[in-house]
Each structure stands twice: as structure tokens, then as C-alpha cells.
Amino acid sequence: MAHVKKGLALLFASVLVFTLAACSGSKDAAGADGKKVLTVSVEETYKDYVESIKADFEKENNTTIKIVEKPMFDQLEALPLDGPAGNGPDVMLAAYDRIGGLGQQGHLLDIEPSDTKSFGDKEMRQVTIAGKVYGMPLVIETLVLYYNKDLLKAPPKTFQDLEDLTKDPRFSFSSEKGKSTAFLAKWTDFYMSYGLLAGYGGYVFGKDGTDSKDIGLNSKGAVEAVEYAGKWFKEYWPKGMQDNSSADDFIQQTFMDGKAAAVIGGPWSASNYKEAGLNYGAAKIPALPNGKEYAPFAGGKGWVASKYTKEPELAKKWLEYAANDQNAYHFYEETNEVPANLAARKKADKQKDELTSAVIKQYETATPTPNIPEMAEVWTGAESLIFDAASGKKSAQQSADDAAGVIKENIKEKYTK
Description:
There is one protein chain. This protein is 46% helix and 15% strand. It is an alpha/beta fold. The longest helix is centred in the first third of the chain and has 25 residues, at 2-26. The protein is globular, with a radius of gyration of 24 Å. The protein starts with a helix and ends with a helix. The relative contact order is 0.16.
């Protein structure tokens, strides 16, 4: 009996602690002045931006914006636990490829936006899953070509141009005879190489990335792409380019040292090039040997609201407010991250910033990263897709078949009820 009483006491204490925790998370629902409080979680680098736009929102909605500084991915990882405990924020930023999973798992508030005309279908697809909208698009992102303006008068237009550059003695790799660093891309990384696969007709999932039973990474086109990648690894690139753990450092350093004419990279690389004093340009990635466009993943981030918010209507208002024409462009001014909002993007393109224009042009050929939960199995299953073929360990077909097989098996094990 004593054990029962002790158990009941512990249970009561646990419930009390949980209740207090939940209350502590919602205590900001009304501030000392009686105003409602909306907690906005952003990275430290975005705090000043939120500070700059919050006044009008606070005035219009008789509320107070409380800013929490926390790395985006840390916040998203914490939401499933912090949200139910009442410790999570009301709204936050989320990478598009995380929105679908969090939404389906019940952690994000689904919304019915009053304005979707400010965004294209591609932008809305990235915040929508199974017909439900879980956020408002803020930023678009994709890979581009960076080139050294001191070494090239203009960016290469085709991959044949890039192959021709390997004959230029300025880019000979001294440690390995016959190898060149004229053009470099981390194709052992699936995220970086997907544009090549997609340009040849490969795809992750069918039905615009929603059918996980249809995997197209071992299709005829995808195999052709793997074979073409193998040509670069075998004929042109130093052996170190096969080392997935160190290849990126090699690429970045070689480019900044002026020993590479062009590299494929993301918008996030630009700050390092500026800091290094590199005279670089940015452009759309050259056309592939089959005449098709490189089609990298389209990504970015949007505003989302926690399913656990005590102020759902206020949270929805913030999502639309922070993503409207004016605020989306202001975000661009503060961060140089390209707006998802079409009007703001058009205005940003007129600023004649090379990187902005390159991202906008490349985004037209980019494919939205599938945002269904099964995508998690693709990142791990396809991580050696290019390497196995490039190293000669497997044929292009076998490498593609094996990768697709691993992904299918993992999805079957984890997602089949």
C-alpha cells in the first residue's frame, strides 16, 4: 500500500510539474500591460530585422512581440517537446524541406492564407503537404555557378566550355599529371549532384515529389548523369575530389587561391569569397551535354506557426505580415537573401546584384525538394550514389540501383504500417 501511495504522490508531482511547465510557456500570452504577447524565434542574425518590422504589427494588433534567439534547426528539433510543454515559440522560421514532416506530425499550425497570389506555384508547393498549407514562403535558395572574373571574361555557358577549360595549363594540378582544377563541384554530395541527375531526367519521387513508391534515381536518365559525373572524376579531377569529407574544403580553398576558374556552390558561400577579397561573379549553371538545364534542388525557408500556440489567429497574422511585399523586400535589403514574394523578388532583381540575379534565373530550372517525411531516407540512401561509380567500385547502373534499393527498403521498414 505504501508503494501505491508513493506512486500516486510521484504521479501527482509529475502532473503538477508538467502543468507548471505548460503554464510557464503560456504566461506570455498576456503581458503586464494587458497586451497579448507573440513569441518569435529567429537566428541571432535576423533579430535586428524582426525588431525593424515589429512596431507596425504591435500597433495594428495591440500586441507585444517577444524575440527569442535560437538557431533555426535547433528550434525545429526542439519543437515536438517544447511545444506540448508550453515552452516553444509561437512562430519561427523553417527550412522548406522540414515543413512537410513537422506539419504531418502535428507540430505546425495549418493555415488558409488570404493571399497566395504573391507567390508562384513552386513557392507554395514548398509550404504545402497533402493539400494543407503550413507556412508562408519567405526566401528562395538554389545552387549557382561562381566564377573568377580575373581568370574568365565571362561565365561559361555550357559544360563543354567547362571541359575545354581543363586544357588550360593555368589550372593543371601539379600533384597529379593530367588532372585539372579548372571547374570543381562536390558531386559526391547528393544535394550538390542532384541538379545533374535531374537535368538528365532523374528524379527523387514521382508525382512532383509526393509519391515515395516511385523512385527515379536509377532511371535511364539518372544513370546517364552518373556516367557523365564519372567522366569528370576519372579524366579531369584530382583523386581528392572523391573524398566527401574533405572535397568541399579543397574546392573552396582552390577557388579562393585563384586556381579554379569556376565552382558550383550555394548563396551562403558568397560571404567567404567577399571576405577573401576574391573578384568573383555569379551566374546560372551551364547547360548540360544533353542540351538540358542543370536542375538543382529549390529550397529556402518560410514562416511557420507552432500548433501549440495559444494565439493561433495572431500567429497567422504574423505569417502573412512578415511575408508581405514590403517586409519580404526589407528582409532582402537586410540579408541579401532572395525573396519568395514575387513583387519583392522583381524589385530585388532590378538592383543588378549578380548573385541575386543568378539565384533567380537558376531557381526557374530548380526542383522543389520533396517535403514528405520519406525524404529523410533519400539523403542517407543516396550519399554514396556518385562515389561508388566515380571510384570504380561499381558501374553507374549498379550504383544507382543499389542506392534506389536502399531507399526503398528503408522507406518500407519505417513508413509502411
